[in-house]
Amino acid sequence: MNPAIQAMITMIVGIGGCIVYFYGANLLLDKVLFPAKGPNAGRNINRANMIRPWLFLLPAILALGLYLAYPVFATLRLSFLERLPGNEYAFVGFENYTKMFAEPKFTEAMINNVLWLMVVPAASTALGLLVAQLTDRLPWGNVAKSIIFMPMAISFVGAAVIFKLVYEARPVDVAQIGILNHLYLTFGGDEPQQWLTIPFWNNFFLMIVLIWIQTGFAMVILSAALRGIPEETVEAAIIDGANPVQIFFKIKIPQITSTIVVVWTTITIATLKVFDIVFAMTNGQWETQVLANYMYDKLFRAHDWGMGSAAAMIIMLMVTPILVWNVYNARKEMR
Amino acid sequence: MDGLSGQKPIVVWLLNISVVLIVLLWLFPTLGLFVSSFRTGDQITASGWWSAMFPAEQTLQIRAADPDEFRVETSDGVFVVEGQIFGDEPFEGTIQAWSTSSRRLGENAPGDTYDMGDGESFTLNADGTYIWQGNDDQISGRAQRVFIDAETPPEFTLDNYNFVLFDEDNSEGMMKAFLNTLTVVIPATVIPILIAAFAAYALAWMDFPGRALLIAAVVGLLVVPLQLALIPLLSFHNSIGIGKGYLGVWLAHTGFGLPLAIYLLRNYMVGLPRDIIENAKVDGATDFQIFVKIILPLSFPALASFAIFQFLWTWNDLLVALVFLIDASGQTTVMTKQIVELLGTRGGDWEILATSAFVSIAVPLVVFFAMQRYLVRGLLAGSVK
Known about the structure:
The complex is a heterodimer of chains A (335) and B (385). With 335 residues, chain A is mainly alpha-helical. Chain A has helices at residues 3-33, 41-78, 95-102, 104-135, 141-149, 156-167, 179-186, 201-227, 231-239, 244-255, 257-272, 276-281, 291-301, 305-334; strands spanning 81-84, 88-91. Chain A folds into 2 domains: 3-78, no CATH class; 97-334, MetI-like (MetI-like fold), CATH 1.10.3720.10. The two termini of chain A are 52 Å apart. In chain B, a hairpin with a 4-residue loop joins strand 6 and strand 7. Chain B has 3 domains: 4-52, no CATH class; 56-152, no CATH class; 162-381, MetI-like (MetI-like fold, Orthogonal Bundle). The interface between A and B is large, with 115 and 114 residues.
């Protein structure tokens, strides 16, 4: 069947199904099961209202449970199993983990991931804050912000191609087409560099791609937070003789700390899961492996589900503090 | 106030210049790809894309017309070949200098007649017409070579796009991947909205035990890495017979998009005025009617925000498509996967790479600039994901 027709049918079935479900279930509840008339009208209405929320929630709960909650436990289980030929599993305890910890490629991925976590959220947030502050009162600030925000719309793979062109190296005797090597040679470099193959530093050239994408996100949120600062606090500081730098660091930053933390943690999660950039640009060669790509290697190239699941659990473990903190905050807010 | 009015002009200038520099820094990488996608492969390797806007100077090596075929005897023993050095194709650049030998590059100006010795001479005019004159012996054999220092104007072409999108013989074309991506994206954007909207309404405006717990669960699921879901769900899809395919990828995107959808929509719906809803209830409207007739229309901005997020996310996704959609046949490849393949097979062919990448980037960019307002609003409401 033609995929386009299949997509149309899916949409009609999906949307139609949803409408029929929600409408039909309501009708069933109100007219058949607990009709709001007859001797028990009052009791029926109450009963219907007790059930209705669950009717509204059922599809969402099913989808969330099956596609996000169940996999966490299934992956945890898989990480303690070894897949044997013929769809059999054997319980191996922590063997997948110990084997994984012993692999140099895993250690490399862990170290790199920690490096990413230290650099990318900090750099994106700081740059975002800087741009938000600089463009705050600029007449053309919105245009500038739009352009810096734009990479948000570009896929990681697209960004990978974009930056591969930036990092492109050509032999020394022909024209350079990568702008980085062009600048490097113009400012006194002796020969073109293959930036992505220089161990350790190549990690930073990959991080630049994510920073380039995430800075716009940080900027948008921090810019709104900066605008939310009460004018009086800034005015009072000016009257007291504070200079712009002092105002920025001592008056504004303390007032938006909670927003900075939100931005920081959000980018941290994106950084933890980084996959496409490494997959497309180096595929973990030249010591650039990261956890998500290591996991993909194990799952779909080595077909080692045990170790792949163990790697996934490590990512989950690193996300958990943020998860707990988010839930804690959300509950505090609701009270 | 730290408005511009109270500041010295020099500070204002510095501010403007530093913002311009940052903006250029951010724009340059994308611009490079954009410009490259309109240049031929030869142009891309001949000079950096940043020089594509300016006229390029290059030395062309061209031969005059074949003397054995085109020479004309004007008077006794004098043979002449006349013609247009660039042939039939119009030449858009300007000739700055020329010569007949690679050892004397650029020694003659246009219009000069160069004496090649023994009565043989060559004249090249600025418009490309030439006269090559000599005796029977000289005007024969191989045609005279001419080295022309020419300045060619910037030249851009749509050929790359034609090749990448519409060339039937191009097995690595993007058209199929483009349509496949579209097939993935549209249902994967629309279906979660509907499911999430009902759930968000229940979580925002209906009172039932366990509500707070469910909201907390949604917030928690927001950050669960989808990496964990790959193997369990693939096994699940295989066991119920979906396998790898569109249905699987639609379901997966729906599941992964739901937490953000519910979270965004609930936050928005909670902020709607309580009076409207209570008045409607007093007038006898059921929850279903309130939802469809009041809440949905009022929530349009939040619906639009989520739709953009989900659209960008599914359009740009690689991992979910790799795991749940793309099978060994390669018939269902999406653009991101196709580009990764091209990076492997056509690593040096920047005209193909740049164009293919830009085909996939263009649609999200248009959506981004058209709907930026909603995107920003959504980010501000749901900056947890």
